[in-house]
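User: Working on a comparison across species. This one is Alpha/beta hydrolase from Phytoactinopolyspora halotolerans. Can you predict its structure so I can line it up against the others?
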Amino acid sequence: MELNREYEWRGRRVRWTATGDGPPVVFCHGTPWSSWLWQPFAQALASEFTVYLWDMPGYGASSKDADHRVSLDVQGELLADLLSHWELDRPHVVAHDYGGAVSLRAHLLHGARYASLALVDVVALAPWGSEFFRLVRDNANVFGALPPAVHDGALRAYIAGASHRGAADEQLEALAAPWRGPEGQAAFYRQIAQADQAYTDEVEPRYPSLDVPVLVAWGTEDTWIPVDRAHRLAELIPGAQLELIDHAGHLIQLDAPIQLATVLHRWLTRNARQPPE
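Assistant: Here's the predicted structure for Alpha/beta hydrolase from Phytoactinopolyspora halotolerans:
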């Protein structure tokens, strides 16, 4: 599914695509990922749903201009405007990692309305941000100037650490590719440098006010965002459904694709049958 369409937003170029037929489902990726992680799931659902894939500015195939902020506040506002551009009133939203914070901010702060929201190993609750994040935030210019070979080794090791079962070489290559070259390397460290827990702290008190069906799905072996966050998040959100997937880490799409696809299909088909309130 090539991202063959473009949306201009405040000088940024957002690459996206849509295919299929049926109720709309919007996939939101996280960091340092792209819509590539969601492509097999979108393709599998396209016979029953109209699926939307997009890369956030600063990620994947979208623009990576150095002057453009890519922090969570910007991405949340963008998502709300992107849904309006697509003329989607109440899509189903499936979000992973940073995509969770982005979709939550779009809904809670910017008026985006959803038919349902699936939160998969998401950034949503404090504390978050690894020691590596803090090191990069304080030394982004130094990391951006690393020799390409050193950057590539650090990048692949960082990405590989998100998988519990171990990602295949071709999967690591696909995930690392957008972060190579002078533009990609600078963008990789820039988006980490702009990571700020304040953007989830701002909306966390509002989670009990969520009034859409919410699924919280999590890999039990996630070392990036441990599974205790799943329990806490499900407890905060009224009526949230909790699904834990064994033997899966943060890259749950690669560690347990069949189990995750089954959970998402069951969730989406059940909620697609519910009339909007």
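For your comparison, note: The CA atoms of residues 163 and 226 lie 13 Å apart.

User: Helpful, thanks.
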